[in-house]
Amino acid sequence: MKSFTKFGVVCFILVLGLASSPILLSPAKTILAQAQPKLSQSTTPGTHCEPTPADYLGPFYKANAPVRSHVGDGYQLSGIVMSSADCAPIVKAAIELWLTGPDGSYDDDHRATIYSDQSGQYRFESNFPPAYYGRPPHIHIRVSANGFKSLTTQHYPSAGQKTGEFDLVLVPIN
Question: Which fold does the domain 36-174 belong to in CATH?
Fold first, then answer.
């Protein structure tokens, strides 16, 4: 039996040699969280940055979230918004965030819009998002900026964390 991990997904594969053709059995377990890029400490402008993987928008997205950087206490998320073409920071990117409140329900009190600053950085504070219905703790994120494809993704904090870094790498529109 062989096991491998890619983007936070763990699969188990059993290969049997029958008549010279291998048989692939179905994955045993899938973990929903994706690997999250952390680029701000290792990249410099002028190099290529891997785009942030897209993730589910989910059914609770609502446009026009209020502009605010604080919707609760106990968890702080920060990072840099940058271009995949050259790792340059993206100024004034609109970052929409939404998550469940401490009671596990989505509501307007846990939605926000923030903007990246002159160096592409952003900071957001909320409660630690609780797990619900088999979903791991997560914060939904939708990022848009002039000249770039919009990105919808999710940040998955680990239990016990009080801070998280999540760089958002956007693809330029050609």
Answer: Protocatechuate 3,4-Dioxygenase, subunit A (2.60.130)
